[in-house]
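Thread title: Can someone regenerate the structure for this chain?

I was given the following input by a collaborator and told the matching structure tokens would be attached. They weren't. Posting the sequence so someone can regenerate them.
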Amino acid sequence: MNPNLVLHALVFVVGACIGSFLNVCIFRIPAGRSIVFPPSACPRCGTAIRALDNVPLLSWVWLRGRCRHCRAPISGRYPLVELLTGLMALGILLRFGWQPLTAVYFAFGAALIAITFIDLDHQIIPDVITLPGIPLALLGSLLVPEVTGWDAVIGVLAGGGSLYLVALGYRLLTGADGMGGGDIKLLAMIGALVGWQGVLFTIFFSSALGTLVGLAYILATRRTAKARIPFGPFLAVGAMAYLFVGPPVIRWYLSWMR
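Best answer:
Regenerated them for you:
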């Protein structure tokens, strides 16, 4: 058997296992509960989940999406998060190879996955993730070849400052809040790792994607343009897009503009 295939499969499995932990974070952090204790249990009957019933991806299939004890349905969100995290781990490895930066990018991506699903569920982005994430991302940026220390610091200021100005301007014009503080801190965290160049790419990509998805949502549901759609998931997708394709796209764009 190809050794690389075995290693890639192992990375996917490890990523899926971390995705299982992210499910715990997504469920418990908004409720202010510990992500360590008590062990995972069925939210309906409270029965502790056995180790064999907590295998990422496979257990959900074995149990046919239901609790073994009370037969309450288990959301398909759980295997989805595990699958996404496993694929992200594998994708980052294939893109960046075996190096310390790969672990930094994976931790960053895992935080973005947790933020995405929490924001989708509750329309909040927890400070417990973004505030420690900013200094940790600054440290991680030391391993990014394209990002200098000043790029990272400016990225924090540009990321948080740009969205703060947008939020302030919207409030002055409409008298209502159009963007939460969580989005501001999230983009500051993103800028700390990818620098100001990555912030520009992330803002453009997430805004374009958010506009398309928002229009599709309004047309599909026939809601007004004032429907609240969380922006955090779009920022997360934009940041991950920058990691994979951002620098070459920017170089291509600059060469095309000359």
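The radius of gyration is 20 Å.
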